[in-house]
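Quick one, probably user error.
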């Protein structure tokens, strides 16, 4: 299901330094490295060892703490802001005038995603699709993606979308409809390069800009109206 186990119906903190989705890949890498070492195949052993270390690095899952108010919106992903734009009601998932923020994750970013605001998950919708490069505009509509709608305690609605990239082939989501979530909570992961979009109410006060680097669950991107 994800990087955190459930306890009494609630997600609890992941005690490992890496996301659980990475454990099979890390285990395979360790096994191959050991086999090549046992066979005396030094070059292959070195290659397998380096790839295993990169896999550990890719699936790293650091703790993040940020003091927030009920109107604080945090970055849902590590990476670089591709775009911030205002959309009318016909061109976005909120169905009303909104601000759309897109964060692109490279292979070298932490890929664990975090909930941008405190509230309740009202809907989750997975959509299969293509795997074009996640930094292209059409990736939002054409790529495999997972759309999550959140209702805040203050009555605001926002949507955040996990989007698979060119080499991403698995979107993991660890929350369910009806879950109460908090800003900065881990909620999922996308393997090997990807993107997360957020649709916010039009009058959200944005405090970041295009091309800025952000950290999931730590960087404040705006404040809800």
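Nope, works fine. Designed sequence:
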């Amino acid at each position: 299901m994800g990087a955190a186990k459930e306890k009494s119906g609630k997600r609890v903190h992941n005690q490992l330094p890496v996301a659980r989705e990475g454990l099979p890949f890390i285990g395979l890498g360790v096994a191959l490295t050991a086999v090549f070492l046992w066979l005396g195949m030094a070059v292959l052993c070195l290659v397998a060892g380096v790839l295993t270390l990169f896999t550990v690095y890719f699936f790293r899952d650091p703790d993040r703490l940020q003091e927030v108010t009920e109107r604080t919106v945090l970055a849902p992903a590590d990476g670089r802001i591709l775009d911030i734009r205002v959309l009318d009601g016909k061109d976005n998932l909120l169905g009303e005038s909104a601000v759309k923020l897109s964060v692109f994750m490279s292979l070298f970013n932490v890929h664990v995603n975090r909930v941008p605001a405190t509230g309740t998950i009202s809907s989750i919708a997975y959509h299969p699709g293509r795997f074009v490069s996640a930094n292209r505009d059409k990736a939002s509509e054409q790529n495999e993606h997972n759309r999550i709608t959140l209702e805040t305690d203050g009555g605001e609605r926002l949507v955040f979308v996990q989007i698979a990239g060119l080499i991403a082939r698995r979107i993991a989501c660890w929350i369910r409809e009806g879950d109460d979530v908090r800003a900065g909570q881990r909620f999922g992961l996308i393997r090997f390069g990807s993107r997360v979009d957020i649709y916010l109410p039009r009058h959200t006060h944005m405090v970041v800009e295009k091309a800025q680097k952000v950290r999931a669950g730590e960087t404040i991107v705006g404040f809800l109206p």
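The first helix runs from residue 23 to 38.
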